[in-house]
Amino acid sequence: MTDSTRTDATTTGDATSGGRPLIRALASGVPGLDTVLGGGLPESSFNVIAGAPGTGKTTLALQILFANASAERPALYFTMLGESVIKLLRYQQHFTFFRPELVGSTVHVRSVSADMLNGEFVAVLARITADVERFQPSVVIVDSFVSIDAGGAGHFGAGRFSSSISSSSSELGRPGAMGLEEFIQRLALQLTTWEVTSFLLGVYAEAHLRYPMFTVADGVLWLTQATDRNSVVRKLQVTKVRGRAHLPGLHTFRMTDAGVQIFPRIPEQQRDRTPGRPRGAMRLPTGVPGLDALMGGGIPAGDAMMIAGPTGAGKTTIGMQFVADGLRRGEPCVVAVFEEYPEDYLARMVTLGVDTDAAVRAGLLTVSYLRPLDLSVDETLAEILEAVRQHGATRVVLDSLSGFEVALAPTFREDFRESLYRLVGALTAAAVTVLMTHEAVGALPDVGFTGARVSFITDDIVVLRYVEIAGALRKVLAVVKMRRSQHSDEFWTYNITPAGAVVGEPLTGYHGIQTGIPDRRREAAWPAPAGLTDRETGVLDALTRLGQGTPDAVAAQLAAPGDAVVRAFARLVALGYVVPLDSPGDGGGREHRPVVLAAERPREHPAEP
C-alpha cells in the first residue's frame, strides 16, 4: 500500500486526550468482543487469532470482516491450507452476518493453497502484496496455518504437509527462495506495516508464544473449548492488545445462527454504580400483606433479598407478589426462571389478578427462561441486563438459585459463590432491586446450599419453615437479616391463599420452633424453688404438665438423657416435690406425681450436694 493511500488514524488520530493522539477503534461486529478489547479493534493493527480446530476462529474472523467491509474499503480473505473457497462459502453463508451479495464486490476471497503446498512462499507473499495494493482493503485475513503447524513445537515445518515443505526447503539455495519460518515472519511484518486491520489465524499453543509473530502482533486472541461431563464450554482470552485496557481473564462465548457472541466476565461494578439517592433511602413494598411491617417498611431499594425455604412453602408465590406489586405501580419487572416454563409462570401470575398479556405487550414484564445445562453466569447476566436496560426495569426476580446452579455448566459450578456475588453486584449496581428464591431445608438458608455459605451476598433474608403443631403442618416465617434497618425477630404464621401469601399472627407461647416440632410454653406450677438446678426445675415443670408420669416419659418429652432425669427425680422425691406412686416398675419406669398443694411444699430446700 503506498504512502499516499494511508490513513492518518494511527499518527494523528480522530481525537486527542491531553494532547496525545488516540488510535481510532473499529467496531468488531461481534457482540461482547468490543467490551473485552477495551473499546474495539485498534485500526490498522495486526492480530493473531489462535485456537484448536473447531473453536470458531474462521467464523469469528469472517464476522469481523463482514462488519467492516465497504465499497470504499473492501475486505480480503486469503485461505492457505485450510478450507477451499467453495467449502468456506458453502458453510459460512448459513450465518446471518454473511451477506452473499457482497462476495466478489466488497468481500474478496482468495486461495493460495497450491503455492503453499509447493513451497512457493515468495510467490504467495507477492500475490498477497499485489492484492492488498490493488483493492486497498480495510481488513485482511490470512487463514490459516493449522495444517502446517499442527505438530511442531520447535519450528514451523512440522505437520502433515511437512514432506512437501521439506522438499521445497531443500531448494533454498536458489535465488529468491524462502523457508516457511521466514515466510511467516515476513508476512507478519508486512501485515504490521500496511495500513490495514489484519488477522493471522492458526493453531498454536503456549509453547509457540516465543515465535516472532506474537512479538510483532498488536493483538492476540486465544479461543478454547473444553468438555466437562456432558457440556461443552467455549472461552476467549485476549492476552494482548496494544493501546487498550482490555478485560483480562477468560470470557465465555457461544456459537449461534448469528455467529459468535461473547459474554464478558462481570467486571468490578462499583465504578458503574448508578448515582442518586443512597441505598435504602426508599422502600419497595413486597406485595405480601403483613410482611412489609416485619421488615421495617418493605425492601430497601437497590437491595438483594433472599426468600429461603423448603418445597411448597410459597417462595415463588412471594416472588410473584413482588412482581405484581411493581406492575401495579407501573414499574418494569424482569423475571428469570430456571425451574418452569415462562407460560406456566405467567399462568400462575394470572391467578393473582395480574393481566400478564397486557403487561408483556406494554413492555412492563419480561420472563426469561434459562434452563440449558451449559450456561455461564456471564451469559445469564447478559440476558438479564439486556432486558433490564431495554425496559428500564427496577425489579428483578431470580427463581430460583437452586435451579440456576443446576443450569450452569459443571465448570462454572465450582466457583458458583463468586459468580453469584458478581451477578448480584452487577444488578444492584444498576439500581435494581433483586429478589431471589432458594430451596433450603434446614433452619438456616445456607444449609444444603452448594456446600458454600452465600448469605453474605444478600442484604435481606426471609426464611420460610414448616412446623408441626398439634399434629398439623403450619407455615411460619422469620426475617433473619435486614441491613440498615430494624426488623421483627419473631416467628410469624402465614397462609397461601388464592390471592397469594398473607402473614398472620406471631407464633408466641412456643419454644423449639426451629426444630420443626415446637412445644408450647407453660408457666411452672410454682416459682422455681431455690436450691434446684435448671434440670430439676425443668423435670418438675414437665411432670406438672403431665399430671403424673414416669422418668422415662419426662425424658422423652424433654429430649433429655434418661439417667439424668432419673437422678433429678430421686432428688425431687428427697426434697418432697415429687412422690412415687404405688405402681410396678423401678428406676425410669415408676409412676410419680408432683406435690402441688402449698401445704405439701417443703419450707426449706437444701442445696444439691
Brief summary:
30% of the residues lie in helices and 24% in strands. It is α/β, with parallel strands linked by helices and 609 residues long. The strands form 7 sheets. A 9-stranded mixed β-sheet has the order 7-6-8-9-5-10-11-12-13, sandwiched between helices. It has a 9-stranded mixed β-sheet with strand order 18-17-19-20-16-21-22-23-24, with helices on both faces. Strands 1-2 form a two-stranded antiparallel ribbon.
Write the SSE topology.
Layout: E1 16-17, E2 20-21, E3 25-26, H1 33-36, E4 41-42, E5 46-51, H2 57-68, E6 75-79, H3 85-92, E7 107-111, H4 113-117, H5 121-135, E8 139-143, H6 146-149, H7 162-169, H8 180-193, E9 197-202, H9 212-216, E10 219-228, E11 231-241, E12 250-256, E13 259-263, E14 283-284, H10 291-294, E15 299-300, E16 304-309, H11 315-328, E17 333-337, H12 342-350, H13 356-361, E18 365-369, H14 377-391, E19 395-399, H15 401-407, H16 410-413, H17 416-429, E20 433-439, E21 460-469, E22 472-482, E23 492-497, E24 500-506, E25 510-511, E26 519-520, H18 534-546, H19 551-558, H20 562-575, E27 578-580, E28 592-594
Parallel strand pairs: 5-9, 5-10, 6-7, 6-8, 8-9, 16-20, 16-21, 17-18, 17-19, 19-20
Antiparallel strand pairs: 1-2, 3-4, 10-11, 11-12, 12-13, 14-15, 21-22, 22-23, 23-24, 25-26, 27-28
Helix pairs in contact: 5-8, 14-17, 18-19, 18-20, 19-20
